[in-house]
From TrEMBL:
InterPro entries assigned to the protein according to its UniProt record, in alphabetical order: Transp_IS110-like_N (IPR002525), Transpos_IS110 (IPR047650)
Keywords: Coiled coil
Keyword Coiled coil recorded: yes
Chain ranges of the Transposase IS110-like N-terminal domain: 7-146
The keyword Hydrolase is annotated on this UniProt entry: no
Pfam families, sorted: DEDD_Tnp_IS110
Organism from which the protein derives: Shewanella sairae
Domain of life: Bacteria
Stored PANTHER family: PUTATIVE TRANSPOSASE FOR IS117-RELATED, TRANSPOSASE FOR INSERTION SEQUENCE ELEMENT IS1111A
Protein name per Swiss-Prot or TrEMBL: Transposase IS110-like N-terminal domain-containing protein
Coiled coil: 187-214
Length: 247
């Protein structure tokens, strides 16, 4: 039987700091490994608990650890802070993560599936396009206001910008018109990209029975259904893995 109870890992972009505790809470070893060496080390380590903070890259590594037979505990970073001793460094952080994971009252984060993470990426990209589109509309409005033209808000007016300007019959400097044309083309491109992200989410929803069931609720569309689907997939894999560990 392995003497390792838990291995705390402080995650980095290309390097990782590990601290292992035994069943009495004593430190067994500490290591500093590259990404490739970390996977090799975990593959050779008997099944144990792997504890990490829930952050960028943690869900991918958690799935990799699970595939190697380890039990993974992801901890929200704010719950690890009280266990950090003395001055903060990578090994101290790894030690605090390992200690925090053994507390009976600790709360953990479910490991996301690959599909759940992909859905989140699509949603984040869509959200960034929406924010940039809003900024683009604001810039067009502010440019016109600089020349005494108060442009109405809303996508309906923005899509027919030049027809509105023609009806308004206000003189527009030629160079300003060129800027408006280029910026309006950018606005239309953002609309197309948002529509592309919406199409991806719709396809994911159509391929999942649970998401289709969610869409039957009045007021729930593809975006909300896809968000719920990502959460459902995360909960499902967490429950399955917990059951496997229990048996």
């Amino acid at each position: 039987m392995s003497t390792i109870k838990v291995i705390g890992i402080d995650l980095g972009k290309s390097s990782f700091h590990l601290v292992a505790h035994d069943y009495h809470g004593r430190e067994l070893f500490r290591k500093h490994l590259s990404r490739a060496k970390l996977i090799e080390f975990l593959a050779q380590t008997p099944a144990t608990i792997i504890a990490m903070e829930s952050c960028g890259g943690s869900h991918w590594l958690a799935r990799k650890c699970q595939s190697l037979g380890h039990q993974v505990k992801l901890i929200p970073p704010q719950y690890v802070k009280p266990y950090v001793k003395t001055n903060k460094n990578d090994y101290i952080d790894a030690d605090a993560i390992a200690e925090a994971s053994t507390r009976p009252s600790m709360r953990f984060v479910g490991v996301k599936t690959e599909t759940s993470q992909v859905i989140s990426v699509i949603q984040r990209i869509r959200s960034s396009y929406v924010k940039e589109r809003t900024a683009c509309m604001s810039r067009i409005g502010s440019m016109l206001l600089e020349f005494g033209i108060s442009f109405p808000k809303g996508h309906g007016k923005m899509k027919s910008l030049f027809q509105w300007l023609a009806d308004n019959k206000e003189p527009i400097p030629r160079m300003l018109m060129q800027e408006l044309i280029e910026h309006h083309e950018y606005y239309l491109q953002l609309n197309e990209r948002i529509a592309g992200q919406d199409k991806k989410l719709k396809q994911l929803v159509e391929q999942n029975e649970d998401a289709q069931l969610l869409k039957s609720i009045p007021g729930v569309g593809d975006l909300t259904a896809s968000q719920c689907l990502a959460a459902l997939l995360q909960c499902s894999i967490s429950l399955v893995f917990e059951c496997d560990q229990a048996t």
